[in-house]
Amino acid sequence: MSQKRFKVQLDPLIQRLPGLTKRTRQFETFIYLTLIAFVAVGSLFALLSMFRFFQRIAAEQVCPLPAAPAVITSQIVVTPDGDDGVINCETLDIIIGNGGEVIISSFVTENGSTSGDWGGTLRVSNLTIEPGGVLHADGMGYTDAQSEAANGTPDAASGQTGGSGGGHGGAGGEGNADQTNPASAPGLPYGNAEEPLTLGSAGSDAGEGGAGGAGGGAIRLEVSGNLVINGRISANGLAGTASANGSGGGGAGGSIWIEAQTFSGGGTVEANGGGAENATYQGGGGGGGRLRMFCISDNDFTGSATVTGGQTESSQDGGTGSRLGPTCRPDTPTILKQFRSNNTTEILVGQATSENTVVFAADMSDIDAGETLALQLEVRPIGTPFTNVPTHTQANNQANPQTCLTPPGNCGRITVTGMTRSTEYHWQVRVRDSKGGFSTWASFGGNAETDRDVLVAGLAANISLVSGNSQTGTVFTALADPLVVLVTDSSGFPVPGYNVTWSVTQGQNGGVLTSGSSTTDQNGISTRTYSLGRIAGTNRVRASGSGLSGSPVEFTFTATPDAISYFTITAPQIALVSASMDTVTVTAYDQYNNVKTDYSGSPSLTAVDPADTNAALGGTLSPSSVTFSPADNGIKSINNLSYDTEASIKIRVLDGVAAGYSNTVAVVTALGSCPDPDGLIDLNQTWTADTNNQGIFDCRGLDILVTNSAVLTVRPFENGNTNYTDDFGVTILADNIRIDTGAAIAANSNGYRADRGPGYSGSGTGGSYGGRAFGAGTTTINGSVYEPVNLGSGGDEFAGGGSIKLVVDNGYVDVNGSIQAHGTGGAGDAGSGGSIWVITDVLGGTGSIAANGGSTSGAFRPGGGGRIALYFEQNGDTGAGITAFDYNPANSRIAAVGGRGNFGGWWGGPGTIYVEQTGVDVSTQGSLFVDQQNNSAGYQAGLLEGDYRFKLLSLTRQGHLMVLGNASTLTITDSSGLTGDTTAPILLNYGTFIAPDGLEINGVTVDINGEIDLGGDTSNSSVTVGNSVNAGLRLRASTWAHDQNYQYQFESVHVASKGVLELISAQNGNTNYTDDWGLVLTADDITVDAGGRISADGYGHPANRGQGFVSGGGGSYGGQGFASGITSTYGDVYQRRSLAAAPRVLQEEEQ
């Protein structure tokens, strides 16, 4: 059988059914396909099915009401279908005129519940109800024979008792009880105030048969245009009827749900409960129904909208139902925000908060300007879907509108407390107005509802390392990657706002945490960056949280040395001409004193003059270079080095700009023998240096013991000319040296004779060496702080102290008696202290070591202190019974003080005491002590021009120190490496003073007569003065480094309670006062504590000078000095840069 295709033309049918919607046309395709099926199979059943289907669809969609301009003036009953109750007139305008009555009946499934029961949903374009016109569902709810709404159905009455009212939006009222039977329980409220679709319940019958009134039905109006109500829309319950002595209860009001673009008119909208006919035992009133009446753009309705309970004469009235509107919907919020409890910190979409209080905010507006507004919130855990039922409502309505332009100000706000921790939430809001209207819901975040809007984190429980561990970098540089830890709660969620404690547990001299935050971010992350310390090796940083699992988190880093900067060379003190020296060790270092363990290179080796290391000597040093490989780890030993000429040399090692110098090596043709054959010195002896023994007494193989109060006196060689470089003291080589109590090795008065030596400056002065003699100039300072070998200089009348050097390679020097190299004094200008240089494996003893300047009687000038240097690997050896030697001069075991004068407080300047623990301290970077035992006339110890590095510089008891030469550098390698005491001795620097950033100056007055360099960039460094002990910092406006165009800049300056910052002006001494200037100090922060001072006292023009100087008068500046003319004032009130004039100093005869 051939297949044929047919097409049914539906247009005539559609024209005959004006209520069909566009949906009907969509079924044309279905019909077409069904006809094909019919032709294909020849089935009559298929054709019948098609027409039955079409008949059903058409019935659902057909509008039973005539379209305008036709006016309904008679009764039309619309019965909802059993599918959805929709009456689709959405393209039509409907007019119900006077006398017109449109009744919306209901559909009930009789299943014992409200499910499947509904009234009618009428969709229209525009709807007008004229005066006298009615659209209603009065009594179209449940009957007294139906009990679908279990809560709303009242109990049956007994005896003659009246029936009780049905419930819906409000509860029903109780009927009157007879003499025997109580009132039956009335119906209770049910249904949804926001979605009023349920039918009203009937009242119960009276005990003697009066029927209960039926409940109101349900009307839903969806008006896409204008709704005009001048008649009535109602879904009222009916009154209970009377029979014999009782009447039934009233039916509850039904449901009215109106949505329209606009509404207007003065009619009535009612979902009231029914009353009960009057009887002896009157039934109770029905409860009010439910009403929702919302427009979109305009509300001009002036009529009434009621949901009152049924009214009775003697029984209980029904309760009032629920009513929302009439009102226009508020606008849907468009600005949604969430904040922490401080109402300031915004929580972005998906972020976390450590608090369990969240502030939810949104804009609110409504076309009805006179209405007030409240925000409604639905917030639920992720995984719990929204129900469109608010969980929270703003407590107090706010004015309309709330723009939320500066959130959370001008916003609707709801603060939710006690939110469950370790829970992810999503939320939505809407706006409710004062008439019950509400907007559509607006969901926060613009994300899927399975995505979190906010995480309420639990309490911090865990901390873990995320990244940044096990990095390697160059010392004193920032690591490439940040240090990252994660803080989570017990459920593994991140915890924001937690303060992680970060600490540097092994900073290796300067390791510091820099940028980043200790407080965890929204992802529970705390991040810090770390700069490695100056010392190569392991750095450690710890991140911890009290009570957290996994705490502390340990970070470990490796710091590698910086580029090669310098070398150190350890050489023997003595060598024979052309013979291989004992082991010479060359060590490569970076600028931070780290051994350059990865150094490779072949630096040159050169013999240079110890007095001028830039001058190469004429002999041959072999080999002339040394080769490092990475396997040497930065340390190279040379066992075949020799020099072919008798001389005192230093060995210079040089690779580019990296250089280093050895100690002085005495290269001699022969060594002097030990004058004592057994080393036991129990009687006084004198050992004298000469050109044959070169002052070197080789007692190796012996233990020298000075005992029985014996004195071993050593005399230097002094050739009597003015070339003081070829004079020398005494060097003793031994396996061990012990000086018993009462015994001594001494060189007192065995230095240069009177009027001789590099520290003698001429008639009328004492001798200088490590310290200036009283009255002597700075040029008299001489000798090395590291290798004190010079003889003490004589004064006008008395000799200086001699020179003692003790060398014990693998044994001990145990000083229980004394080692002395004092200058001599008396009734004449005194000599300086001499030299004491001890090199040993173990140092110990309870005795003393001293090289003091000579003291005088009468009006004579005392000598300056000498120089002492102690080198040892170990201080004390309990196993050998050797007590550690106390080398702190404050404890009186060691001294190099200036001599005492017996006239007017004259004192020589102190000498120097250098201490280095070999193998612990970097070569020539040990500790320097200067101490004057609280007796000073202001004279200093001195360092000649050169480069000096000390881990500790201690100036005590008026032990002043000056560093000579503009080219000098004095480096304090540790921020706490500069110490003093309450006398605040002066550290006068003519070169560059270098110290770490964050320097604390306590117990010392640092006087900058050159340049100051803190941390390599003073402008970004900080300094503190006097936070624990009296201290000062003097800055000068004019030095070799500073002029008017380059002054001083710091990041921060802190003058603490015991500090003084002195700012010294510049003046050139002529009468052109315009080229003098004051000091300019620039800093990001300057703090002066109570008791601290910034001072320029006395640093203006001196006596008899300055623009404001007038002979015979006091100095003037901003104010007029006494007896000075009015023209003597000068300067600028706005820019105060001039110096003040000093008053004239009156001479004695003028007083």
From TrEMBL:
Residues 160-175 have a biased composition (Gly residues). Residues 138-213, 305-328 are annotated as: Disordered. Residues 305-317 have a biased composition (Polar residues). Keywords: Membrane, Transmembrane, Transmembrane helix. Residues 483-558 form the Big-1 domain. The chain crosses the membrane at residues 30-54. InterPro entries: Big_1_dom, Ig-like_fold, Invasin/intimin_cell_adhesion. Signal peptide: none annotated. It comes from the Bacteria. The keyword Transmembrane helix applies. Gene3D superfamilies: Immunoglobulins. Belongs to the intimin/invasin family. This is Big-1 domain-containing protein. It comes from candidate division WS6 bacterium OLB20.
